[in-house]
Design brief:
By secondary structure, this protein is of the alpha+beta class. It is built from 23 helices and 22 strands.
Amino acid sequence: MISKWLTAKEIAAMTNRTDRAIRWRADKEKWTSRNEKSNGGDLKIYQVISLPEDVQTAYAASLAIPLQELQNQLAPKEQHDKKVILVNHSARSGGEEQVIPMEAADSNKRRIANLRVKIIRAWDDSGMSAPEFLYEYNAGKTAADIRAELGGKTICQATLYNWLAKYQNHDAAGLLPKYKDRGGHGASLDKQAKELIWFYYLHKNKLSVAQVIRKLEEKEKIAASEPVVYRYIQHEIPQSVKDYFRKGAKYFHDHYESYIKIDYSRYYSMQMAVYDHKTLDFASRIEKADGWHRARLVLTCILDKRSRKILGWWIDETPSTVTIIRATRMMVEKYGCPDSGQFDNGKDFTSCWFTGDAWNEQHNTFGKRERTMVSCITDDLGMASHFTEAYHGQSKHIERAFGFFAQSFDKSFESYLGSNTSDRHDVSRTYVGSFDGAPKRPIEELPTLEETRELFAKYAEWYNGKWRHSGDGMNNKTPDEVFYENLHTRRDIPADFAKYIWTRRVIKTVGRNGIEDGGNSYFTKEMQGIVGDQVELRVNIDDIGSAYIFDLNGKFLYEAESRFKDSGITEENVRAIRKARKEAKKHLDKYKEAIDLLGKDRPTMLEELRENKKILSGGITWDADSPAASSLEMRKVAGGEPITPVPAKRRLLLPTDPGVELLYAEG
């Protein structure tokens, strides 16, 4: 006799294995099983039809029948057009009741009836008793997808038997829901009450249902029972609406707004280069004019969208358009020009001398802004510019790459600080301050800017050539392998043209002494013929002493040098000097303001001298610093004005002026 279920001991005997080995394999391969009562305990048995083919072959051999015959007898019978008859059911009738045809019911009720039929068939196919099947079903172990479509509700044994009886008597039509449409939960609430519930419950302060009811009663004079309001909020207001108003637009976007999954296999290498900045999660040090300073450096990185290969990068104290240009230059020199670039909406990427008017053209609905006239680097390289949706970093896979960099590169430093406070160890504070009385760690322990760049260069080489990526379209290959497999052509720029590209651009008017820019004056004799004209000045980012003059149509005119012979100074140094000057002036203004404010209330030496000389009415001059003056006190007459100070002990009242007291000094 063929059995649909076998114990581990029976399988072990057929396959010459131990019980323990069979149970271990069953757990590892997740064989379909159930428990049945045996000798006062539970015995796990395994469904034969779901067992691996080698086990089924051994079982068929023990029965002396072919494997195909065994599988045919174990396969569930396809009788979906007939009523299900279960031997363990008492065949109780569903009773006489009026049943409407399936075609007369609405689509939602037909959907529910068909799902109930699927549950009955799943029970029949399982070979379990009703309690066993319901235990597995309610726990989500059996027919979990059907349970999810029915709202995740559990089923009791009485309900299952009731459905079976109705299905046997009336087919699927007997399983149509019998409830009537009553208008939903909260049908007793009028429109105004519902809108007030929206107003209070959907507030960002996240009021509870009890608080909403109090607001309705106290402020709106509307009486509503708590169960009615609770059911209305729970069942009638969509969860997405509640999450949008109570948790914010970002939460709504991350959890509800649909997105299109990127098919990376449709891209080719160098079709799109993805740009972004990342703050490194460890402390470094930078040397300035007044010594060493602790800093969190920033990585500007470019990835190939198809292969995730690091194309170019630059590390500096502050991200800027200059760091973007340096990373772009590394990419172009090593791999050529990409067809397009993907950027976020930061000001470094929307700079007119990097992407020109591209951002304005893509983000202004009612016509673009006035053109800047400055030619941009992306145009010079033949790169199309694409900007991501603001505040939605998930549209750039470089964000996920940065997470991997943080784990595999940042955490390798002793001065690791963590990307946030919850990821930061307390001891890491000793690299930027003190903790629990421990002194600040010596700054010499921190990597310098140059050392950080050298270490990341080695890391980028390892990542491109050794790291096997498991992402979409990577097939566990390294970025280098995928990059060169999908590289169609390489676009390069002429060598003699490169010096004009890696420059800062600005529109200037030619004066009699040349072109003034940032404290530098650029001059060549040929400029005398275009005095008063506007031109495009391009200053080399590595040497501010060198500049190139173009007209506004992009035609090259002249090369120019600084009249003050400043050369070998990079754009970063110039920006650092300007920043330092600005900071210095800010401090000067702060102290000057305080000094001027205090000076208004404090007399000068001359004013103090004159103030100390008091002239008495009798022509007597009193020195305020004399011993006699120190014994005087001020008095007021009836009019409220002070009179000459006199000794406090003796007073004379003149008979000619009885209303005035004359005070005089003794002796």
